[in-house]
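mind reviewing these C-alpha cells:
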Amino acid sequence: MRKQLIISLVLVGLMILATAAVILYGMGYRFSLNKGNPAVSGTGLLVATSAPDGAQVFINDHLTTATDNTINLEPGEYNIRIFKDGYFPWQKKITIKKEVVSKADALLLPAAPKLESITNTGVLNAVIDPTKTKLAYSVASQSALKNGIYVLDMTLRPILTLQSASTQIATDTVTSFSKSTLKWSPDSKQLLASFGNPSIADYLLSASVLNSNPQDVTETLLTVNSAWQRLRDEKKVALNNSLPRKLRPIVSQYFNVIDWSDDETKVLYSASISGTLPIVINPPLIGVDSTPEQRNIEEDAIYVYDIKEDRNYKILDNMPLVDEGSSLPLMWFPDSKHLVFVHNGKIDIMEYNALNQTTIYAGPFVDNFVFPWPDASKIVILTNLGNPAINPNLYTISLK
C-alpha cells in the first residue's frame, strides 16, 4: 500500500514537472550549457510570416529560416530581412523581449507588376464610393450607345473579364451624363450627376441598374445634399462613440480625421494643434509593435493612431494638395495594415507606421485617380500610358 502511494506521488510529481517544462518552453525558456554548467535561459519568440509565403528570413544578415515559422531568440534588437525572388525585400528592426511573442509580418510587393486594362473606350473621371468597393466613371466615346455613366463593382465573383464587370447606369440619350460631376450617396446606393449649370438639370441615379427615367432633383438638390450630410455626420458620431471613453476627448482635441482603416482599429489624421498625446492604455500592452512611436505631434502633420495598441506614428509633415475632384493622395490599403501614398508621379505602399515604403508604379497616370482593389490584390489607376492622343482608361496594377 505504501509502495503504491509512493509511486502515485512520483507520477504526480513527474506530471507537474512535465507540465511546468511545457509551460516554460512555450514561454520561450530553453535548456543550455553556460560554461559547462546546465542553465535555463529565457528567450523571446519571433513569428515570421509573409504574403506570399515561402520567403527567406535573414536575421542580422544571416539566412535563418523561411516564413511561416517561429524562432527563439535571445532578448535584444535584431535586424529582420525577408526576401523572395521577384519581390521587393522587407526589413525591420525588432526588439525581442523575454517571454514575449514578436511578429515580422511582411507584405511582399512584386518588382515587376502586371498591368491590365479595365476599360477601352476612354474614361473622363472616376469616383470611389464610401465603401471603397465601387467605382463610378463616365465614358464619352465615338459610339453614342456607349456614352454615359458606368459603375464597376470590384467585389463581384467570379469576374470573367474586368471589362465585363462594369454596368452602365445612365446613357447620354436623356442628357450628356458623360460630362457631369459624380457624387456618391453615403450608403453607396445612389449617384448624384451634377453639371454646375443652372440651365441643365441635376439627376439622382440608382447605382445598380440602368436609369431609363432618371430622377430630376434640380429643385430639391439642397434637400438631397442636406440629407446626405446628415448621414455622414451620423456615421462620424457613431465611429467616435465606438472609441474607448478615455480616447474620445483626445480625438476631439487633436485629430482632424482623414480616414478610418477598414477594420476601424486605426485612424489616419492630421493634427489640429501641436501637443502631446496623453497615454490611454497604462501600463502599456505587452508584445506591441516595437517601432518607436511619436506622441509629440505637430499641427498639420499626418499621423496614424493605433487604437488597440495606443501607439501613434508620424507619416508625413503635411498632406499634399490635390485638385478638386481627385482622390486623397494618402489612403488606407484594404488590409488595414498599410497605406497607399501617391506623390511625385509615383504610387507607394507603406506600413501604417511609415516603414517599408515601396514604389510599386512610377509610370504615367492621371492626377490622383488611384484606388486599391477591395481584396488587396491590385491597384486601379487612370492612365493613357503616356499617349496624349487618346483618352485615359482604367487599368489595374497586380500586387500578386
